[in-house]
Amino acid sequence: MVAVLNSLIELDEHGVAWIIGANTKVVEVVLDKMAYGWSPEEMHRQHPHLSMAQIHAALAYYYEHESEIDIQIEKDWQEVKELAARQPDSPLRKRLRELKRERSSLL
User: How crowded is the C-beta side of 58, counted as CA atoms within 13 Å?
Assistant: First the structure.
């Protein structure tokens, strides 16, 4: 079941907020703002498939639900870090580390 919150934002069956008609999660817009400090205008330049109204609606939704979205972002980030820590190094990563050590020993 999907809950439509307004004409631009809806919640899916898992409670995730999406921008209607854009196949974009609200959190993706939020992360662009957090990571790059982008203004809504810059977000629109970077993601022309999003209208200014959609971007502002996503940001408004975020500011109305800031603490819960921030908690989810942190939880997701911790999960990514845990998954990455459990992965063995690939041969490429091992070789790059060796090259880095060799290079630093020359300096």
Answer: 28
